[in-house]
C-alpha cells in the first residue's frame, strides 16, 4: 500500500470531525472521496498528508507512520494539487511548475537544466506546453488547474492528492481535467500513478471508474468500486434528497436528483 489510514479520528484541536476511518490507496488506482459540504474531506486530506495530527489512529506512508517522515520525504511520495486560485504575485506558468521540483533540490539548490526539462515535459504531457511563458495569474481557471497538475507531475511523486480538481471549472474544462486524470492513472501519461481526489459530483466517480470512499456523518458509509457502491439509496442518504442512478444508452451510469 502507498498510503493507509487505520482507524483514524480526524478533527481540529478538540473538535472531532470524523472517526473510525480506515482506507488505503494502492498503486495505479484512483480513489474518489465523496461526501456533502463540511463532512471532512479537506480535514481528511490534510491528515493523510501529515499536515494535521490525527486525534486517534495512524496514517502509514509506505511502511512507516507518516509522523516519522520529514516534509521532504513526504513531498517525494505525495504531491498535493490545491484548488487553483490566482496568486498575488505574477509568476510564469513554468516557474509554478518548477516549484514542484523543490523537494528534489539540495539545500539552497537552484533548479537546473534537468529540473526545467522535467517541468516542461510535465506540461507537454498535459498538453499545455504552450502556456510555459504565460503569466499564471492571467490564465483561465482550467489552465491554472492543469498547471498545478503539471507541478504535481514534475514533483515525480507516485501519489497525487487533488482537492476538488474540477471545482469552478466550466463543463468543457471539467471533462478535460478528468480525462487527463484518467490518463495519469492508466499510465497513458508517464508510468501510471495513483490519484486521490475529492469531488462534489458522483458522476465523476463513474467517469473515472474510481474506487470510492463515501463519507457520511463523520464516518465512512461505504467504500468500493463506484459501480458497486454508488446507488440511489446510499446517495439519497448522503445528500439528503431523492437521487436515482440510471444507465445511459452508451452504458455509462449517471446520477439524477429528483427536483420537484
Ligand atoms: N481550521 C479549522 N479549525 C476548526 N474547524 C475547522 C477548520 N477547518 C475546517 N473545520 C471544520 O471541520 C469540519 C469539516 O470541514 P472540511 O473543510 O474538512 O469539510 P469538507 O468536506 O472539505 O467541506 P467542503 O465540501 O464544503 O469543502 C467543518 O465543520 C468545518 O467547519
Q: Classify the fold: give the CATH topology.
A: Rossmann fold
CATH architecture: 3-Layer(aba) Sandwich
- Please tally the β strands and state the result: 12
Number of domains: 1
**Global outline:** globular
Give an account of the 3D structure.
This protein has about 260 residues and is an alpha/beta fold. The protein has a single domain, classed as P-loop containing nucleotide triphosphate hydrolases (Rossmann fold). Helices cover about 30% and strands about 25% of the residues. The protein has 9 helices and 12 strands. The chain has helices spanning about 40-50, 70-75, 95-100, 115-125, 140-155, 170-185, 200-205, 225-230, 230-240; strands at about 5-10, 15-25, 30-35, 55-60, 65, 80, 160, 195-200, 210-215, 220-225, 245, 255. It has a 6-stranded mixed β-sheet with strand order 6-7-8-3-9-10, with helices on both faces. A hairpin with a 5-residue loop joins strand 11 (about 245) and strand 12. Helix 4 packs across helix 5 (about 140-155). The protein binds adenosine-5'-triphosphate. Adenosine-5'-triphosphate binds near residues 15, 17, 38, 39 and 40. Adenosine-5'-triphosphate binds near residues 12 and 42.
Amino acid at each position: 500500500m502507498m498510503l493507509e489510514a487505520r482507524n483514524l479520528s480526524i478533527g481540529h484541536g478538540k473538535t472531532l470531525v470524523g472517526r473510525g476511518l480506515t482506507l488505503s490507496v494502492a498503486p495505479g488506482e484512483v480513489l474518489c472521496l465523496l461526501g456533502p459540504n463540511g463532512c471532512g474531506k479537506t480535514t481528511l486530506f490534510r491528515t493523510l498528508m501529515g499536515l494535521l495530527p490525527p486525534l486517534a489512529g495512524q496514517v502509514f506512508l509506505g511502511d512507516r507512520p507518516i509522523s516519522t517522515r520529514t516534509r521532504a520525504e513526504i513531498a517525494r511520495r505525495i504531491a498535493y494539487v490545491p484548488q487553483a486560485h490566482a496568486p498575488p504575485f505574477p509568476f510564469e506558468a513554468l516557474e509554478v511548475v518548477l516549484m514542484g521540483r523543490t523537494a528534489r533540490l539540495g539545500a539552497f539548490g537552484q533548479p537546473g537544466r534537468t529540473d526545467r526539462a522535467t517541468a516542461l515535459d510535465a506540461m507537454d504531457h498535459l498538453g499545455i506546453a504552450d502556456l510555459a511563458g504565460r503569466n499564471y495569474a492571467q490564465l483561465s481557471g482550467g489552465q491554472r488547474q492543469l498547471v498545478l497538475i503539471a507541478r504535481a507531475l514534475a514533483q515525480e511523486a507516485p501519489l497525487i492528492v487533488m482537492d476538488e480538481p474540477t471545482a469552478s471549472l466550466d463543463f468543457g474544462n471539467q471533462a478535460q481535467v478528468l480525462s487527463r486524470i484518467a490518463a495519469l492513472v492508466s499510465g497513458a501519461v508517464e508510468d501510471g500513478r495513483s490519484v486521490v481526489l475529492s469531488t462534489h459530483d458522483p458522476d465523476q466517480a463513474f467517469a473515472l471508474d474510481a474506487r470510492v470512499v463515501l463519507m457520511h456523518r463523520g464516518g465512512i458509509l461505504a467504500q468500493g468500486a463506484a459501480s458497486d457502491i454508488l446507488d440511489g439509496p446510499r446517495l439519497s442518504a448522503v445528500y439528503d434528497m431523492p437521487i436515482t442512478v440510471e444507465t445511459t444508452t452508451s452504458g455509462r451510469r449517471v446520477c439524477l436528483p429528483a427536483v420537484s
